[in-house]
Amino acid sequence: MPALRGRAGGGPVVVVGAGAAGLAAAALLRAAGQSFTLVEARDRIGGRAFTDRALGAAFRFDAGAEYIHWAERNPWAPIARAAQAHVAREDGWARKLVIDGRPASADEMTQRRAGFSGLDALLAPKDGDPSLAEAARAGGPDAAAAAAGLSRLSLGEDPERVSAVDYDRLWSGSDLWIDGYGDLVARHFADLPVSLGCPVRGIDWSGPEVRVETARGTIAAAAVVVTVPVGVLRAGAVTFTPDLPDAARTALGGLSMGAYTKIGLRLDPARLDAAALGDAVSAATAGPTIYFEMQPFGRSLAVANLGGDLARDLCRAGEAAAVALATERLIAILGGEARSAVQAGRLAGWWTDPHARGSYSIVAPGHAEARERLREPVGGRVFFAGEAMAGGGAMTVGGATLDGERAARAVLKALGT
Ligand SMILES: Cc1cc2nc3c(=O)[nH]c(=O)nc-3n(C[C@H](O)[C@H](O)[C@H](O)COP(=O)(O)OP(=O)(O)OC[C@H]3O[C@@H](n4cnc5c(N)ncnc54)[C@H](O)[C@@H]3O)c2cc1C
């Protein structure tokens, strides 16, 4: 590996992490004529926006982000249109519900739908900052069950650990479903110079400049934009000298990572009746509730989605166990013939990925100000950015992009450029 040089290697700003936030920050610095060095631990850019081809190019699926949320104000909506990406509107498909291996009865379907009615109002707390579980309790057991499903299958976390105030702040709007969100992000920023395979291990901000220690040497910089996921920060994978101030550490303590997880199953189209495949939810009294996305963009795939502690267990158990469980659940929905149709499987296990350590940031009950606090620059030269600091845009590619730009503007201001 060639060593990275100091200032001569790229200039006075280092951007750590080439996901949406780091890429957007670097692009803004470049547009302002500010030199920078962008370093990335993985051998690719895009971070948690990644179109996975492990099952074959014809069976690709987005292992991370796939929806452009709040499309009315999301910068990726016009980018996707300009790139002529294949985009569909998310329109709430008809869904099958399978409970413990049998189709749900009409009563069970009605009961499930009833749980969701009025949920939004319940989850907008009037006092304090309760968890989603606590906030939903007032609506009775159906509302509590609906809140748990929503929490695990859209936030990737169990409802006891999610701040209702933070959830209520998240932006809403229409969702665009995009074929290859990861590819779009990587293509959009393809011309930015990036040092790949270059994990940052330490940031020394004790002196007037910042010294960023990477696997390929130390870079001296006037400022650093740190966009690694909060799970990576909390794991101590990047050390700070001196340690971060109390305010930043308290903010980090109020944030954690959910475990939204996907398992792609490649299906032999000759062995399945395509007409029988409709999106489905598989609930079980023992084991995780799984949402199956069938034949995304017409590909012969079923993608299982799950979250919370049971998803964490599955990530730790590894790909073979995850694929076996997803296959069993698919059989419970489609019948025994589905077994021979499953040709291969792929676990997108972000929870055990050392460069993510989870799916996206979760604010703990009682810590609703954590996102805002972590935006405060440290020592005027360490700037945190990413989805976790994106306020109402948190947990999304659009939010990460806007927040990366926000941090880059703050750096330019601090440097007087
Ligand atoms: C399963 C799943 C589904 C999702 N679905 C959606 C969706 O439908 N729509 C949506 O908008 N969002 C979705 N998201 C969230 C979205 O992917 C993220 O919010 C967004 O991509 C985060 O961007 P970021 O730049 O903040 O972080 P990242 O993309 O994680 O970028 C951080 C970068 O830092 C790198 N890094 C880590 N450690 C180091 C180190 N020590 N040194 C150098 N580099 C390092 C990482 O490799 C990574 O490339 C989903 C995420 C997951 C996991």
Give a verbal description of the structure.
A hairpin with a 2-residue loop joins strand 11 (210-214) and strand 12. The longest helix has 19 residues, at 397-415. This protein has three domains: 13-46 and 189-255 and 362-415, FAD/NAD(P)-binding domain (3-Layer(bba) Sandwich), CATH 3.50.50; 53-91 and 258-352, Polyamine Oxidase, Chain A, domain 2 (Alpha-Beta Complex), CATH 3.90.660; 110-169, no CATH class. It is globular, with a radius of gyration of 22 Å. Helices cover 33% and strands 21% of the residues. It is built from 15 helices and 22 strands. The strands form six sheets. A seven-stranded mixed β-sheet has the order 8-7-17-18-19-16-20. A four-stranded parallel β-sheet has the order 2-1-13-22, with helices on one face. A four-stranded mixed β-sheet has the order 12-11-10-14, with no helix packed on it. The chain has helices at residues 20-31, 76-82, 106-116, 119-122, 132-137, 140-155, 164-169, 181-188, 230-234, 246-253, 309-317, 319-334, 338-341, 370-374, 397-415, and strands at 13-16, 36-39, 51-52, 61-62, 67-68, 87-89, 96-99, 102-103, 176-178, 200-204, 210-214, 217-221, 223-226, 239-241, 255-257, 261-267, 280-283, 290-294, 301-306, 342-348, 361-363, 382-384. It has 417 residues and is of the alpha+beta class.
